[in-house]
Amino acid sequence: MHMKTADQILVKQINKMIVLNTIYRKCPISRADIAKVTGLNKSTVSALVDELFMEELVLETGIGESQGGRKPVNLSINKDVGHIIGIDLGVNYILSVMTNFAGDIVWEKRVDLQATQKFPVQRIADLEDLIQETIMHAPQSVRGIMGIGIGVPGIVNYEQGLILSAPNLAWENIALREIIKERFGIPVFIDNEANAGAIGEKWFGAGKKADNLLYVSAGTGVGAGIIINNELYRGFKGLAGEIGHMTLALDGIPCSCGNTGCWEEYSSEKALFRFMKEHIKGETLTIFDVLERAAGGDELARAAFRYVGKYLGVGVANLINAFNPQLVIIGNTLPLAGDILMDELRREAAMRCFSSRHFNVRILSSQLNMHACAMGAATLVISRMYALPVS
User: Fold this and answer.
1) Is 118 helix (H, G, I), strand (E, B) or coil?
2) CA angle in degrees (0–180, nearest 5) for 370-374-375
3) Is residue 141 located within the same domain as residue 212?
4) Peptide bond into 28 cis (omega under 30)
5) pTM of the predicted model as reported, rounded to 2 decimal places
6) Fewer CB in a 10 Å sphere around the end CB: N or C, the chain?
7) How far apart are the C-alpha atoms of 163 and 368, rounded to whole Å?
8) Are 216 and 348 within one domain?
9) Which range scores top for mean pLDDT: 83-87, 257-261, 382-386?
10) What is residue 217's three-state secondary structure?
């Protein structure tokens, strides 16, 4: 009796995921074209497709054009086989999206919270309530909820699903993956919100065609997701991208991380509100209040966005010099101000960026806007199913 070795089983699993990924990227596509794209032989592709068909992950979706022989049967992803939940755990909100297996949003809800309501027990209870509500809205499917992805504004041990530190939430050492997994019995993946945003833009947004890109999340804080050669760069211990805490001023403004002069103190919502409060007293504003005022022509609000855009541009120039990306995407709340902020950011970055003398780097607003992190969090689950890098 012939027994498969562990290596043979692993190779088969890898090949199976390559076939599934190819169908996802190229559908509708025939078995013969999968073999051409992947370099796998036709019999291997046919056997793996049969397995994926039995598992209901792919569907036969019609007849393709003949290339001289029988007309090929085209294959597509069975987008309704199951659903995925993606969560953006913000400082003053929680956004939940539910997608199908192809990444299309089928339901979503945003819950606004008090920024002061940061105690882990209460915030996790709010998160669990929203996840439960999302599950209740899931359409009937073969596999139900296939996984939950969560993007968190802080330093995350990705492998363990442990939040090491989230200064803007005042959280330390929260085993969020285990808490959520124990409650719902569903696979859970946790990552930094900027990493999630980068993955979301790479799979579904402005970064689809870029092999090397930076996603800068500019909201309550500032962080970056770094994609190099189509893979998310995490660094030695998974802590890469904490750019909001690079020092911009030696004796600057105190930061929630314990340092002083951090970039995010000059280029985030905190800086925007500080600018506004210097000119108006006794009025509590949200970021959406300031956005509305700027859109309506309020010069103080517009000046505040230009101020923050200038400092964002300084940091972005440094990042371009360090990483040499094809593309920089600015996401989260601040780029919702549009050209008011982005024109100032681009002008400052171009003036200070050494590499701009030699080539032009595109700097774009997020295509997914406020969905970037939640969609990236869903992709943490989807990409596991396809088992390939974020390309």
Assistant:
1) coil
2) 95
3) no
4) yes
5) 0.87
6) N
7) 25
8) yes
9) 83-87
10) strand
pLDDT tier at 256 (50, 70, 90 boundaries)? confident
CATH number at residue 55: 1.10.10.10
**Residue in the block written with tokens 């517009």:** 302
Q: If you average pLDDT over residues 88-98, what whole number do you get?
A: 94
Counting the structural domains of the chain, the total is 3
**Cα dihedral 3, 55, 104, 64 in deg (nearest 10):** 100
Please indicate, yes or no, whether residues 52 and 161 belong to a single structural domain of this protein.
no
Kindly state the helix (H) or strand (E) to which residue 364 belongs, with its residue range: strand 362-365
Distance between CA atoms of residues 180 and 169, nearest Å: 18
Residue 276's contacts (CB-CB under 8 Å, 6 or more residues apart) are 285, 290, 300, 301, 304
Q: Which residue has the tokens 């209870």?
A: 125
CB–CB of 19/52 below 8 Å?
yes
Does residue 391 sit within a domain? no
Q: To which residue do tokens 């562990």 refer?
A: 6
Contact yes or no for 92/115 (Cβ under 8 A): yes
The length of the chain in residues reads 391
* Helix 339-352 vs helix 299-323: crossing angle, to nearest 10: 40
Same domain, 159 and 239: no
